[in-house]
Structure formats: C-alpha cells, structure tokens
Predict the structure.
Amino acid sequence: MNQKQNDIGAAVRQVLGDSLAYLYPAAMRTAVTLGIADQLADGPKTADELAAKSGASADHLRRTLRFLATRGMFHEEEDGTFGLTVSAGLLKSDSPLPMASIVNLLTDELYWLPAGKLDDTVRNGTTAFPDIFGAPLFDYLAERPERGEVFHTALDELSATEHGGIVTTYPFPESCTVADIGGGKGGLLREVLTKNPTVNGILFDHESVVADHGLDTPDLKGRWEIEAGSFFEKVPTADVYLLKRILHDWNDADCVRILRSCRDSMAEGGKVVVVDTVVPSGNDPHPSKLSDLAMMIVFDGKERSEAELEALFAEADLKLARVIPTSGSVSIVEAIAA
C-alpha cells in the first residue's frame, strides 16, 4: 500500500470518527448522571458493581466506560475493573475543580438541540435557540429559575477554574474600585478582593443572580457592594471594569452597547478589562475555535480575534492597550479611554 492510500485510509477513519464524535459527550453525560466517578473514589470496580449501585445495565455501562477509557476518561484495568484517571477525578462531587455540573450543562439540551440545528444557524446567520425553546437563552432562563440555577451554577464553577490564573496575572491598581460586570455570584470578584487587600469591589448583575452572591465573608467586610441592573443601560462608576466571558455571549452591536455603558460611567483614568479567549490565526487547534461554535449556536455570540476586539473598542470610544495571556485558555484584554 502506497503513501497516498495510507493517507486516504487515515482520512476516511477521521471522517467516520468525527461523524460519531457526538457520542463522546453523550457518554460523559451518562457517567456523570450515574455518579460513576464518586463510586470509584475508593478504588477500581467492575461494571457489575457499578451497575448494581447506579441501577444501570452492567453490559451497557461496561461498553460505555470502555469507550470513555479510549479518551482517557476512566481507565480499564487488565482484570476488567474500571478506575479513575485525573480527568475522571474532576467529575467527583468533592473535586476541588468541580466539572460534573459543567459537563451536565454543556451536554444539556440547551446546547445539544441547537447544535443539531447548526446548519440552520449557518444559513440564517442567527441562533436557532428561540425557534427551539420559544425565547432567547437569557429570557428562557429568567422564566425558569430552576433551569437558570443549573446554568449559573455550572458557569460559576467553570469560572472558578480560571480565577487564580486571572488574578495572579493582571496587576490591579492599588486602592481602586473594581466592578465585576455580569459577575454572577461574585466568585471572581471575591478572588480579586482576597488577593488585593487595598481594592474595593462592586458586583453587578441581574437581581435574581446577585441575590445569591458569595461575597459576605468576614475577611471582605466593608469592601464590596452589590448593584443590580442591565449592563446595556447603565453600570456603576468604577476604576476597573471586569467583563469576564461576557462579550463572547453577544453580537457586535450588543458588545458595543455594553462597552459604551462602561465607557460612559468609567472614572478618569479607568480601564475596561475583557477576559475572553482570543482567537489566533492559523489552522492549529485552539479552545477558542471550539467555544466559538458554542457561542454561535446558543447565544448569537462569538469568540473574537485581537483585531475584532480592537474594532469593538474603537466603536465604544476605547482603545486596546495590551493583551495578557493567562495560564488557562483565556486572555486579559485591557482597554483605556481613546
């Protein structure tokens, strides 16, 4: 067999494998739903043992875990038992970096069903989410608090995996006021205030979100405020505006409205600090190129290149000052008054 035939054979296997790649998140969701990682916390077990505890079919569970093991999610031992890997350990309920809720969200029908309509999204240039669920995502969640809780809890836990890299990378000015815009329950702001004892903070988000904030701790007493509202209308005055994974949820016009709100309220010498993935050029894999499709199908948002962010800033009377990579997949993009 010549090299060309080898290349064609490899390409066929890739196309077939990629066509069925949706089975991997389905299998991950199954493992999370059945609590398999927690059951393996004290050591490897057989599929029969795991099935007896989870109420599953032993044969079907064994085949699902065997498949997950091919991707490093669980490990099949020579004696037929299954054990935890580092990745599978993140799915335990007591993991210091809890990923189970994130897997549950990202494999939920909120993402799954719009992904099946990606062809419609590409044709029409807008998400199919409202057609499927009857309303845009945030309106849908506002009308269903229990679903909103699943969404915001998962995003808070995802965000928690990134806080340390952000706070240790960005030099917050001393004695400044930091407003975390769309800051959810305040996990990032809490980390900022903890690591910067001269900084004060404002947590800004919808009332239903900030009502369950986590800033009320003795070590932060007197250094934070809560404000509720819409970042499309008006935000509180601050020296530094944090926009962590906010702009990527929105189209360009809405992003300019958010940035303009910050620019209009910004204290003299203030900064807007956007924390998002920045899309690099070239064909190499990058987390931003994957999450960009998620933004497309659910939010009508997008991940942006440095040049695209610079253009948004310019429309809001801001200018890009610098881009600072972090240890994770996000970068810190700082803008100042133009």
Remarks:
- Residues 3-94 form a domain with the Arc Repressor Mutant, subunit A fold (CATH 1.10.10.10).
- The longest strand covers residues 318-325.
